[in-house]
C-alpha cells in the first residue's frame, strides 16, 4: 500500500503538478544562477531604417545554464516575477546595461549611440527602492539620464498610483520610458494619456505579414492599418517609434512607407554580446 501511495504521488507530480514543480525548482535555481554569474546580458541593436545606422540598443537577459545550455528569458522571467527574484535580477541587468552603455560612449564618442534600453517588469516598478536603484546605476556608471530607456508593458503600467508616481518620477529625472509590445493590450490608447511615454514600440505581431499584399489598395490594406494608425498617433503626440520584429527587407520597406524611421529585428541585427556590439560601433565610426 505504501509503495502504491508513493507511486501515485509520483504520477501526480509528473502529470498535473509538473509545471508548478518545474517553476519552483527554476525559482530556486535562478537565485544560485544569479549568484554564480550564469545570467548574461546580450544587446540587440536598434537601427535607423533608412541607412541602418545604430541609434540604440535593447538589453536582453540570457541564462547560461551549466547543463541545460542557454535558456531564453521567456522561460525564466515569469518564474523570476513570481518569486520576486526579478528585483535583484532586474537590478543586475540595469547596472550591467548602464555600465556597458557608458563604456561604449566613452570609447566610441557621444554620437555612437543615442540610448540604451532595458525591460522593467511590474514587480520592479512596485519595489520602493526602484528609483534609488536607477539613480545609483546612473551615478555609478556615469551614464546620463537622457541616454537610458526603460521599456514597460501595458500590464505593468496599469497597476495603480504607486507605479504611476514612480513612472512620473523617472520621467522628471529625464529618463525615457518606452511602451513595449504596443497595441497588444486592451487599452493601448488611453495608456498614452495616462503615463509619460517617450517611445512607442510597435509589437511584432503587427509587423508579421505586413509585406503581404492583400489585394486592396495600400490605404485600405488591413495588415498595414494598425501599424499606420500607431505611427500617426505617436507622431501627433510627439512620441518616437520603434517597429519591432522586422525580419525582412520587404517589411522594412513597408514600414518606412508607413512612416517608421527606426526598427529592431533579425533582418536588421540579432541580439549579440557586448563585444560584438562594440565591433559594430567601431565599424560604424570608421565608415
Ligand atoms: P521583448 O522585450 O519584446 O524583447 C524582444 C524579443 O524579441 C527578444 O526576445 C528578441 O530577441 C526577440 N526578437 C528581436 N527581433 C526579432 C525578430 O525579428 N523576430 C523574432 N521572432 N524575434 C525577435 P528574448 O530575448 O527571448 O526576450 C523575450 C522577452 O523576455 C522580452 O520581450 C522581454 O519581455 C523579456 N525579457 C528579456 N530580458 C529581460 C530583462 O532583463 N528583464 C525583464 N523584466 N524582461 C526581460
Ligand atoms: Ca522590450
Ligand atoms: Ca518626458
Ligand atoms: Ca517588445
UniProtKB/TrEMBL annotation:
* Segments forming a coiled coil: none
Q: Which residues form the EAL domain?
A: 23-285
Q: What is the name attached to this protein's record?
A: EAL domain-containing protein
Q: Say which species the protein is native to.
A: Dactylosporangium aurantiacum
Tell me the part of the parent protein that is shown. Answer: 477 to 763 of 774
Amino acid at each position: 500500500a505504501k509503495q502504491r501511495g508513493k507511486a501515485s504521488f509520483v504520477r501526480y507530480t509528473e502529470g498535473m503538478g509538473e509545471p508548478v514543480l518545474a517553476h519552483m525548482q527554476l525559482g530556486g535555481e535562478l537565485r544560485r544562477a544569479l549568484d554564480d554569474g550564469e545570467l548574461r546580458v546580450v544587446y540587440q541593436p536598434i537601427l535607423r531604417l533608412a541607412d541602418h545606422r545604430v541609434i540604440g540598443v535593447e538589453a536582453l537577459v540570457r541564462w547560461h545554464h551549466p547543463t541545460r545550455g542557454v535558456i531564453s528569458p521567456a522561460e525564466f522571467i515569469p518564474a523570476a516575477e513570481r518569486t520576486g527574484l526579478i528585483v535583484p535580477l532586474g537590478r543586475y541587468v540595469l547596472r550591467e546595461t548602464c555600465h556597458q552603455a557608458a563604456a561604449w560612449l566613452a570609447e566610441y564618442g557621444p554620437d555612437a549611440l543615442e540610448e540604451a534600453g532595458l525591460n522593467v517588469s511590474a514587480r520592479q516598478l512596485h519595489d520602493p527602492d526602484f528609483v534609488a536603484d536607477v539613480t545609483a546605476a546612473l551615478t555609478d556608471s556615469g551614464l546620463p539620464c537622457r541616454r537610458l530607456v526603460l521599456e514597460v508593458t501595458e500590464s505593468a503600467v496599469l497597476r495603480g498610483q504607486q507605479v504611476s508616481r514612480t513612472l512620473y518620477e523617472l520621467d522628471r529625472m529625464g529618463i525615457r520610458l518606452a511602451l513595449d509590445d504596443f497595441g497588444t493590450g486592451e487599452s493601448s490608447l488611453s495608456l498614452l494619456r495616462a503615463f509619460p511615454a517617450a517611445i512607442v514600440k510597435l509589437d511584432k505581431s503587427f509587423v508579421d505579414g505586413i509585406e503581404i499584399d492583400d489585394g486592396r489598395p495600400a490605404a485600405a490594406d488591413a495588415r498595414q492599418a494598425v501599424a499606420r494608425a500607431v505611427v500617426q498617433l505617436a507622431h501627433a503626440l510627439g512620441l518616437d517609434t520603434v517597429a519591432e520584429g522586422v525580419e525582412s527587407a520587404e517589411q522594412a520597406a513597408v514600414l518606412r512607407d508607413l512612416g517608421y524611421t527606426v526598427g529592431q529585428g533579425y533582418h536588421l541585427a540579432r541580439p549579440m554580446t557586448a563585444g560584438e556590439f562594440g565591433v559594430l560601433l567601431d565599424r560604424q565610426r570608421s565608415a
